[in-house]
Design a protein that fits this description.
Layout (H helix, E strand, L loop, with lengths): L4 E5 L3 H13 L3 E5 L2 H11 L3 E5 L7 H9 L5 E6 L4 H9 L4 E4 L4 H12 L13 E3 L2 E4 L4 E4 L2 E3 L3 H11 L5 E3 H9 L8 H14 L9 E4 L3 E4 L6 E2 L1
Helix pairs in contact: 4-8, 6-7, 6-8
Amino acid sequence: MASAKILVVDDDQHIRTLIHRFLSKHSYQVESAEDGKGAMAVFEQFNPDLVILDVNLPDATGYNLCQEMQSRTGVFVLMLTSRADEADKIRGFSQGADDYLTKPFSLGELEVRVQAVLKRKRPITEAEHKCLTFNGLAIDPVSREVSINQEQILLTALEFDLLHFLASHPGRVWRRAELIQKVWDYEYVGDQRVVDVHIGQIRKKIEIDTSQPALIQTVRGVGYKFEAPDLAQEE
């Protein structure tokens, strides 16, 4: 099985080289870039599975690059920054980031984060191949596409994973910590409000009225559940 491809984008040559060498020693295929323009050029040719992306670049912001890259493929993005402010992290997640690592960091922690994100690319079982349909909403785990009344809805990689997980267990209530463990696939140590951010982004794309969501419902004091408008049909 081919090793995962990782693109490292950071304007600090020391950090960029350090990460590049470290990941290469762990058998990943690694490319790197020092700015936004170079990053997009490499991204188009390399087609990475994961991008380790610095927020502050000379010619672009990591937030904008994250959105641009994820609009083209379902790439995973790990934001890398010196900003420790919680608001910056929330913004990063709202822009589609799958994880967020604050400088300074240890290479050991970086490796754990990388492995956790890439685990979400695990092989799909036969049961997981089945398309879930709820009236006009269709969720296809093979093509990783979501549509409403046959009109495609664009979701980030993490948004898709979260929606598919909830829809796979209609009616069941999940706590935020459980969703982080199941979807993020490791014990996330940050603010659990990141779940709220992603749920909010998904609702904007699939709910008719976000003030009164019908599909992804909030269970006060507990968490969230997917409420099927009708019995799910499997294709």
